[in-house]
What does this fold into?
Amino acid sequence: MSGESREVVLELRDLEVAFKVKGGGTFKAVKGVNFCIYKGETFGLVGESGSGKTSIGRAIVRINDASSGSILYKGRRIDGRIPKELDLEVVRKIQMIFQDPMASLNERAKVDYIVSEGLYNIGVKRSEEERRELVAKALLEVGLLPEFASRFPHEFSGGQRQRIGIARALIMEPELIVADEPISALDVSIRAQVLNLLSSIQKAKGLTYLFIAHDLSVVRFITDRIAVISKGRIVELAETEELFRHPLHPYTRALISAIPQPDPLAERRKVVKVYDPACHDYSVEGPAWSDVGGGHFVLANSKELEAYREGLAAGRL
It folds into this structure.
């Protein structure tokens, strides 16, 4: 299905997120980011630590303020000051799964309250019996027993705590979930379970995901399209397999070259590329966001773009 005929759930237009720094001035964590997320897809946002991934996710759920640009949910702008009705809709329809399953749960609250906290916040009146039923249903959906509702977070493993975080998001019946590195704090043996859980929930409920991560091998497993971010800028965006087959930007190629290989011999032979921003000559012409074809976008000037297209045509990239 072409992108033009698909429903756009979320769109970012020239988004910038800046933070005040000590001593005055500001630091731009996100610089002119543009992308859209289609209904039912899993959109990956990949980059190293400090690249601005989480700042984008937190801006979407209105934790961080957008300093400029706009965020549109189903065509309606949701950044800045918005009507109360729209704010409540955003709270219900866009939920976030946080990176640290321990820090994101209130240690002094029981699971029953943690999972249903969003229901209290949106002010919809429900009977206690109905609320408990919703909590039990959400816990079952993530593979936890309803009787766990009477326990505290410290009584659970990391994987179970993350499932509680997922249940907290699901109980709101969202359309879009921002998953901010949801498995990076978990043991390797638990990661596949949580990824499979997210995938099965998506199929069952028709959810849309923004999946934020730094591990490209994980993102390849779960996403439909990937945007690569470096120092607050999106440098490349393409369908997942297209990006892995034909990475264009030197930063993307460096990230892919660092993926661990399961074969010890292949791991020993691989050459890890190091990205050096000095490889770009922008003294005469700066980079622009360009489509090389088939929805594969890259940040490049005209000289680089020509080289990328020649490389693709010759099969070098």
